[in-house]
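Quick note —
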Amino acid sequence: MKVAFIGLGRMGEVMARRLLEGGHEVGVYNRTAAKLKPLTDAGAKAVDSIKAAANFGDAVFTMVSDDAAALEVVGQAGGLKDSLPKGGVHICAGTHSVAAIQKLNAIHGEVGQILIASPMLGRPEVVAAGQAGIVVGGPPEAVARLRSLFTAIAPRVIDAGAEPAGAAVIKIANNFVLGCAIEALGEGFSLVRKYGVAPETFYSVLTDGLFNCWAYKTYGKFIADQKYLPAGQRAVNGLKDANLALAAGEAAGVPLPSGNVWRDRLVGAVAHGEGEHDWAVMAHDQARASGLVSGRACALPSRERATQRFNNKDG
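Predicted structure written out below.
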C-alpha cells in the first residue's frame, strides 16, 4: 500500500520504518526537515506539505505530541480536513484524550472523511523489535481494508470497535494501570531500602514470584539500578498520560484515586528537573519523599554508586 506519515519523533520514526520494512510505500512529512533523512535514506519519499501527505496514498498517519498538535494538523488551512479527499482516512496514532478523538472524528465526519485511532502499546524500542501491540478503533470496513498497515507496525492488533474513542480510552487505561504499577514499585523499593534491604534482593523477590512479567522486570530494574536515562517514556509524557486518565475519569464519573498519587509523583519529578528522564523516575521522587536521596536523579549511576546510595541512604 501507499501511505503517508506525519510526525517523525521517536515513535513516529520507528512506526514509519516498520511500514517500510513491511513493503509499503511511505511518504513522510515533518515540520523539522532534518528528521526526514533517516527515513528517506531507507526508501521513504519526502513530501513537502500536509496537503501532499493527505493525497499521497491510501491513508495518512499522524503521530504528534498532544491534542493541540493533532487538532492543528487537521484543522489548519491546508490541513487534513481541507486536503483529504472524501472517503480519505486519517489514522491518528498518538496518545490523545477521549475528547480530542471525539472532536477529530466529528470534524472528519462533517466532510465525509474517516478517522481511525491507532495508539501504540509499547515503548519505541519494543515497536522497533516487532513486539508491540496496536489498538485500532474505527469503521470496520476501513480497518479491514488497511489492516496490512497495522500488522506491519505491530504483530498484535487489538480491535477496539467501531468508535475511534474506544481505542483512545483503552490506551489511556493501559497507561493508567502501568503508571500506577510503577508508582507502587517506587513505594515498595523505598520501604525496603529504608530498612536496609538491598534493592537487588527485593527485585528478585518480585520478578521471580508473582510479578514475573515484562513491566515489573523492566521498570523494577530501572528503579533498582536508579537508571532513568536514556528515557523510553519521558516523565513529561507520563504526566500528560496521567492527566488524560484523570480527565477521562472525571468526564465519565469514574473516580481514579490511584491516578492522583501517580500524577503527583510525576509532578514532583518534573519540578525537580527530571522531566526528560524516564517516567520510572517517579520512584526517585518517592525516595526523596522518604528521606533516602536528595537532589536530581543521576543519568547512569554505576553499580558501586547505586549501592552506596542504597546503603548510606543519604543521597
